[in-house]
Design brief:
With 428 residues, this protein is α/β, with parallel strands linked by helices. The protein has helices spanning 4-12, 22-30, 49-62, 91-110, 118-133, 170-173, 177-184, 201-213, 258-277, 284-293, 317-330, 348-352, 375-380, 393-403, 416-427; strands at residues 40-44, 67-70, 82-84, 87-88, 138-142, 159-162, 194-196, 218-220, 226-233, 236-242, 247-253, 301-304, 308-312, 335-341, 361-364, 387-389, 408-414. The chain is built from 15 helices and 17 strands. The radius of gyration is 21 Å and the shape is globular.
């Protein structure tokens, strides 16, 4: 029997990226294929997976269903990656599930199979937990990386969703959007519909080809479901949603940014599909209430009102572009100061360019993570004139918090791993 801390250290010691399904399929067979007992909604995409998952979860919870979720990376605590009804798996249950699977894992690895990675361990634990320990009505499954070879892709979902395709993890998924799209489209299963908010024609053609081959229905935003009358005021967005099945007018979101309306519409289309074809019971009032209360940790999240401080896990080009649009539309009257950290593989200049005409200055820092880029390298690769290097981001935040004035906004952004550390520090 290990302690929770010892188990986490053991699993994290296997933090290597190993794309492929063979290990996952073989190990799940070893433990009785728990994933086959679950009603799964599988979500992939470059940006917006977490927000879309959360919109769906809020609507299902409001309708009275028990909902499991698998999301990565952790923001507040390691165990939150496996959650039930928004509550992280307890440390006691985490230990129990780990202990239950340990004999099978040891046999599996002793028989000459490859070592199960951190993500594979967590994925197996998640399937077992929701199937055998804390049964749920639905499991919302977020891909870790890509789709086709992602460990979560052993599942047979009720419906799949892809938010969008962007340039991220190119060293593993491909150097072009088309190559990345084919990897993401790997989650499409025979007879299982795909719902997407992707808009690029060449990407949609790939999705169309894949769904035709799999005899699956494809639902595309602005072709099969629609957003109308979108507007934004301070702290609130409204829009009308139309699916092949109905129209709901004047829906409200407190999550800011046009991209969040897209994410919400993707979630709504998933709900409408389940309502129509899977006998999901949910009312319009429950949908309205759920969308308005939905919030997602680390996605343009307000940490402080006075002074104004936001965090946002914009860690790729598309995420930064969406962030810049939100800042331009909502905070054009603010003096925006940015604290930024990223991992080594990022093209910093390409990522940050959309922010340059929106922000006033940027500070670069590093953080405790094996793949974290140095502040010096980030600084050197940024062409914005008003920039600084920060050696200790904690002291920087502490000092800035005292110096910021009413017209200032401090935005802390970049790697989700960095954002998680900042959020923990700030909340303390």
């Amino acid at each position: 029997m290990k302690t929770f801390k010892e188990i986490v250290e053991f699993i994290q010691g296997r933090n290597v990226i190993q794309l492929g399904l063979e290990n996952m399929e073989d190990f799940l067979a070893e433990i009785g294929n728990p994933h086959r007992k679950l009603k799964i909604i599988h979500i992939a995409g470059t940006n917006g997976k977490g927000s879309t998952l959360n919109f769906i979860r809020e609507m299902l919870l409001e309708a009275g269903y028990d909902v499991g979720a698998f999301t990565t990376p952790a923001v507040l605590s390691y165990e939150e990656q496996i959650s039930m009804n928004k509550e992280p798996i307890t440390q006691e249950d985490f230990i129990h599930v780990f202990d239950q699977l340990t004999p099978a894992r040891e046999r599996f690895e002793a028989n000459g199979q490859a070592m199960l990675t951190e993500f594979e361990n967590l994925t197996a634990m998640m399937f077992y937990y929701f199937a055998e320990v804390r049964p749920v009505d639905f499991v919302l499954l977020e891909t870790g990386m890509g789709g086709r070879l992602d460990a979560t892709n052993v599942s047979m979902p009720l419906v799949t969703a892809i938010t969008n395709i962007g340039m991220d993890h190119m060293h593993l998924l491909g150097e072009t959007k088309e190559e990345i799209a084919r990897e993401k489209a790997g989650i499409i299963k025979a007879g299982v519909p795909l719902i997407t908010t992707e808009s690029e024609e060449n990407i949609l053609e790939i999705f169309n080809q894949q769904t035709k081959q799999k005899h699956s229905k494809l639902y595309v935003l602005e072709d099969d479901f629609f957003i109308d009358s979108a507007s934004a005021t301070s702290g609130l967005q409204t829009f009308t949603f139309t699916s092949p099945f109905r129209t709901i007018e004047a829906l409200e979101l407190t999550m800011l940014g046009k991209h969040q309306i897209k994410n919400a519409s993707l979630g709504l289309m998933v709900i409408d599909y389940l309502k129509t074809y899977q006998a999901l019971i949910i009312t319009e009032e429950e949908i309205r209430s759920a969308l308005k209360k939905a919030a997602w940790i680390g996605r343009f999240e307000k940490l402080s009102e006075t002074p104004l401080v936001y965090i946002d896990g914009a860690h790729n080009e598309e995420g930064i572009a969406a962030l810049a649009t939100t800042l331009r539309e909502q905070f054009s009257d603010k003096n925006i100061q940015v604290l930024f950290a990223a991992t080594k593989e990022k093209d910093v200049e390409k990522m940050l360019t959309p922010l340059y005409d929106v922000i006033d200055e940027i500070s670069f820092t590093s953080f405790d993570f094996p793949r974290a880029a140095s502040a010096t390298n980030l600084y050197a690769n940024c062409s914005l004139k008003k920039k600084t290097i920060v050696s200790d981001w904690r002291n920087f935040i502490k000092t800035k918090h005292l110096l910021l004035e009413n017209r200032d906004l401090l935005l802390i952004t970049g790697s989700l791993y960095f954002i998680s550390q900042v959020r923990l520090y700030f909340k303390k």
